[in-house]
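To the team - adenosine-5'-triphosphate complex, inputs and output below.
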Amino acid sequence: MLEVKRLSCAYGDIMAVEEVSFTVGRGEILGLIGANGAGKTTTIMALAGLIRPVAGRVILEGKDITSVPAHLRAMCGIALVPEGRRVFADLTVDENLTIGGIRLDKKADQRNRERVFQAFHRLSERRSQLAGSLSGGEQQMLALGRAMMAEPSVLLVDELSLGLMPIAIDECYRVLRHLRSEGFSILLVEQSTERVIDSSDRLAILDTGRLAWTGTGAEAIREGAILNAYLGETEVPSNS
Ligand code: ATP
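Output:
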């Protein structure tokens, strides 16, 4: 589905991401983890077209989209759920969803909206509420819902759990797993490892801009030293 080939990104002279390669298959969650400054956000921004890589290629469903500008990537099937959610605070839940599906005809808009409300009952009860007055967890649900509206094949999710209560994080992860079962491909960037290890099919660990390790969550738990080496002290979930 999504193939990232030897991606390199720089800010001036500083290389933030160097020759990073990975794939995200259809109906797969790939968890991209790493310590502060490892290059996770830079990678996701490059995939969304918001940062121009200095080298490497991004292939989506066999098509090279490396030079497709950000505003056209949505039409290619890539949707970004940015860190900090960034919903339109002065618009209602319904209006935020309308913006997510702005390129759709009325029928598709309706279908996707129903899908979002089925996934997030809390949003369906708050359709007319201003997004700015939603709780942090509800805003994250809305950010996910808005991305779902565009019918993407790949969802790029940056720091899903940042600043959220555990119950809201559980809810958002539940929906991600549901989306995976519907065939979405999901690249999930997280700093907190516990849930991402649990929910991802595979993990990719970045270390100072380079891909340091890939494997399954179970392998990461078995080789706990790996997580400790790249992420510092981390709460490794038990295998039970
Ligand atoms: P965090 O988890 O702390 O958000 P990250 O893994 O997402 O970190 P990035 O934000 O991608 O890492 O940063 C990778 C490197 O690029 C870091 O060394 C960072 O200082 C640098 N960097 C990021 N944004 C910029 C920028 N706008 N200008 C210059 N350097 C930047």
